[in-house]
Amino acid sequence: MALTAVLTQTLIPSKRGGRMPAAELLMVGYGARQHIRRNALQHLHQEITITKAKGSFSQEESLLQLVRHGHVDREEALLCALHPDDLELRLKAEGLG
Fold first, then answer.
1. pLDDT tens string 3-22
2. Is the pLDDT of residue 54 over 90?
3. For residue 47, what is the enclosing H or E element?
4. Which of 11, 20, 60, 66 registers the highest number of CB atoms within 10 A of its CB?
5. Which of 71, 50, 63 is nearest to 24 (CA)?
6. Total domain count, the chain
7. Can you give the residue range of the structural domain that contains 17?
């Protein structure tokens, strides 16, 4: 009951050298707590979508922003994505694919 959010971060190579952080934030609600209790962690990505209004965002959304602003290459973002098919669709929808 004490867990309110889960933040993960991945550092990916930047176009300018160095690394850029791509983050994912899950605002933990009732559904996420149930998945954690049952060790059904594969369902947590779905919980990010459900709790977007509370501030959750996926790593793919973070990677999309980095590509959109020219900080990282599209190919590098796809390699680092947890759900590359989802990122690919988002990139194409933005005209970046």
1. 899 999 999 999 999 999 99
2. yes
3. helix 44-50
4. 60
5. 63
6. 1
7. 5-93
User: Does residue 80 surpass a pLDDT of 90?
Assistant: yes
Q: Tell me, what CATH number does 39's domain have?
A: 3.40.50.300
| Cβ-based neighbours of 9, under 8 Å, separated by 6 or more | 21, 22, 23, 24
Tokens of 23: 């983050």
Answer for the pair 28, 20: CB distance below 8 angstroms, yes or no.
Answer: no
Query: What distance in Å separates the CA atoms of residue 61 and residue 69, rounded to the nearest whole number?
Result: 12
Structure tokens belonging to residue 56: 């959750």
Amino acid identity for residue 13 in this structure = P
What's the one-letter identity of residue 46?
Answer: Q
User: How far lies 40's CA from each of 4, 14, 72, 74, 86, in Å?
Assistant: 18, 33, 32, 31, 21
